[in-house]
Amino acid sequence: MPLEDGTAHINSPEVDIDTQTGGETNKSEFIEELPTISNDQARTSGYSIFPWYGNSNNNTAAVTTSAITTTNLKKKSSASKVDEQQSQINNNFESQTVQTTSWFTFYRSLTFTSSESYTIEHIPLLQNSPPLLKENSQEEERPGNSNSYFGWFNWILGNTQDTQEGDVSDQSSEAYTSAKAAIETAKDEFHYVLKGSNDFDSYELSVTGTSTEESPVHIQSRKYKPRSINEVFENGLKKILSPEDVIYSVSPNFESNFREITAKTKLRILSNDLICGYKTESHLYRKTQRQILNRTRKLRKLVVIGVHNFLPTKMVRALIGGYTGTANEFVTMATNAVKSWLKSNDPSDENSEADIQGIAIEGFGKINETVESSIKLLNNYKDQINNCDFLFVVGHLTSSTTAINILAKLLHSNHHLRYKKITVLSMSGNFLGPFPSHSLKVVYRAYTQLENEIVKEMFEYERKDTPLSIQLNESMKFLISHDVKFVFTSSVGNPFIPLYSSMGLQYDHPNIYRNLYEGETIPFISKLLQIICEMKNLGQSTDYNIIKDISDKIEITKLGKQIFQNDQIYQEALNFGLASTNLTHQSKLKIKPTKKFVITTSNTINDQLLFQSNLPWNLRSLLQDFLSYKHIDSKKKFFDLVADYKQWQPSNKVYSDIKYCLEAINDL
Questions:
Q1: CATH architecture of 233-520+557-601
Q2: Which of 169, 384, 494, 624 is spaced 20 to 30 A from 355 at the CA atom?
Q3: pTM beyond 0.70
């Protein structure tokens, strides 16, 4: 019987001689029952763990002698008869010349191929061996491990596969292995979901096209989360791209942008609607502290959904040049922000045990396929989503539009969600496509067919009549009609998505809140953009094309802290989603022609002259409208803008041209 498994060896029925004979065995019977080892058995017996060292015959004989002597002592046998038996075996071994220096013999020496069974006391090298001897344990025999010549190497070097599979519970290791392989070896489309709760020390993994698609496998440790080729590549792009002392800000602030709702304000809105005959409510208001507290205490079950789609690695390296994050990272940041928001708005700590479920949707592929696959995977958590009190959806770059389409389809099929509090956070979202000039930089022959289709899809949002643009507009209309709130956060100086695209300027509705994430920015440019955002949040329908005109002229900044890594962005989104009022009367989403906001790839002299002649008049009209908003301290901000302009010392020709166009400000 092979002695590859220490446990099997201990439990062998041939070991205990007393059990076999039914009682005390006399000396003569015992000597007759001793095994006679043949020459072939002597060649293959593995009692010497290092047979290439010294004479193999002597080693084998010595170990065999030790085994027989130990057995005789245990059974109190006669010393003289045992010596005769030992001499006989030694003579048999000495008559054979066995060469054991070959590699095959070395591997065979690491296993026990003897046809007889011996107790553990017979073999000193196996005593106190933790990998093979586990007391009171009954391990399941894994396929491929029995009769393996490499069993001892797994003990010496450590079996990493067993360790990983040991951290997987509630499902077979085969399901985890197939799901992991589908992610890590995928060359085409792949989609998967990671679901965690509270501290996210463990996950549930479900991958399309595997057995986990409908039966998620549980992973008990974060370090065994599968990583795709795209994720490994982008992890190499994590680096500090700007000085550590840069201060990052998110503006405008929710509290300073909106007035607090009062009974007088409610009466004014109702009376205006009655007198004017049409809805005059153009923006939302900030709830009172008591209303926020009551809302906070009702939040017991919360679900955070993060959506991220990887882009072709060649395009990330050439056009984006930075780390785009992961859905799991979005969910972790959003979950921490939710905990912080609940704690800050409810000092009594009644929400300390709120149940927060996180669902990270990750993958690589075309938008419609991603939406369909994500809906299938989310069906595994239908109950958690339907029973939640608040749903928080987060997306970044091209994943923002994907997240909106997923949410629209989710609400369409789950009627319970239509009465829930839902907020969508879009960070540098691709609502009107990337910079048009990027389409000229893409070498399509360097991409696969799937990558070509993914890249082309991003630029389809520049036109209103494309299928993806129509689908996005329908999703936005549907979600707005169900009182879903949106927060569009734009990164100033983003090298891939222009401001007019990330701000979604084609959409007008009170449920859309816009703000900016910026690091080192020209003070004058920064304050001008903040003023435009404040006016858009208060119902201003136009920015006089200023955002469009300066989007491609803002200097690109490499941020050391990415937009999705800033906690304040999530806090501002939660403030708008949970601390703002609802419209008294529902209004429809207004969608403007996209052509009005998208810049062209041409940059002729006529375009430059048109820009320089229109900018002063556009800015004058904008500031005149801005001074009509009293509660945001517009007069002080106006004079701060003028002061920043006078102190501005442009560092490049583009900024010098802008300042030259606005020379009239010096007369104020």
A1: 3-Layer(aba) Sandwich (3.40)
A2: 169
A3: yes
